[in-house]
Amino acid sequence: MKIHEYQGKAILASFGVPVPKGKVAYTAGEAVEIGKELGFPVVVKAQIHAGGRGKGGGVKLARSAEDCESIAKTMLGMTLVTHQTGSEGRVVRRLLIEQGMDLAGSREMYLAIVVDRASGRPVFMASGQGGMDIEEVAAKNPKAILKETIEPAVGFQAFQARKLAFGLGIPAALVPKSVAFMQSLYRAFEGTDASLLEINPFLQTKAGELLALDAKLNLDDNALYRHSDLKELRDFDEEDPLEVEASKFSLNYIKLEGGNVGCMVNGAGLAMATMDIIKLAGGCPANFLDVGGGASAEQIKNAFRILLADKEVRAVLINIFGGILRCDILAEGVIAAVRDLRVQVPVVVRMKGNNEQKGKEMLRGSGLNFVATDDMKEAARRVVAAAGADR
What we know:
Largest sheet: 6 strands, antiparallel
Distance between the termini: 37 Å
Number of helices: 13
Strand content: 15-25%
Number of strands: 18
Shape: elongated
Helix content: 25-40%
Structural class: alpha+beta
């Protein structure tokens, strides 16, 4: 789950990480009042779940109440396009009003903690080249990225923080403060079950203060049951409406750009293979949809409804392995969905496994125009042809 910068900074502050003073504003009037409270100049920052806001015009300096009001009115409601939003952009609905910082003589660096799947451990990363696209830094100069792998049983150790601090060239007098800063970051990462924590830039001021000038925090959805307070930070306006709807029925749905073949599959591995074979057949999947191993007929019906809410879908491929989810349960849900929703697009069904024959008999006896096949490659070929996606 992604959260906004102001939310991430509030969490970091609760773990002792120094952050600039700031508050969230939903109207231009609120922005001005916060600016007066903090004292001008202030920074007005658009709050969307994407990076690159500064380059897109989503970060501005306001030197007066008039500046603040004008900037806030322009930003609120604007569609902000960055390299992470795609061409459709994101609508700005809230702003972070933050105290202005004197950056003269300061130094911008980069810190992050990520889960490294290769090692199965968190990795603390640092770079002296903060305030810019870290992906570009990593591509052009990999040695500029310092890394410390963390053993979860013992946590992030002080000697590891010192290695990173010296590697960044932080003055010896500030190393103890840097160690405390980094260890507080790791406590926040671990304490919230985060999957990503990124500080860019990590600021060293001329006066020797260390601050998280920006913050990005992604939380592991699978651990949210342990953090009822963090669930409330979810901003549904920042998510695809179909993905939000799918989550209500415990369905794993991700909309894909440019596709016209809807996919309904059980199991993430089979879903990935299904998307691959659609591409191999010359088509383009419109979504990733994993109904899970124990889906009910009602969930299948809701999955179908969500699939067809995407107006780009011109044919549907259902590819199910009947293990926990029996093929007859699938057939029951699919038949009900096609009848109740008056489905007009072609539906290709490939099912194998538990109660396979019963499921196929139910489809044949439904009187509905399903295309059934036993072969996965053939199913992909037929659904692509039905969608008119051959190329």
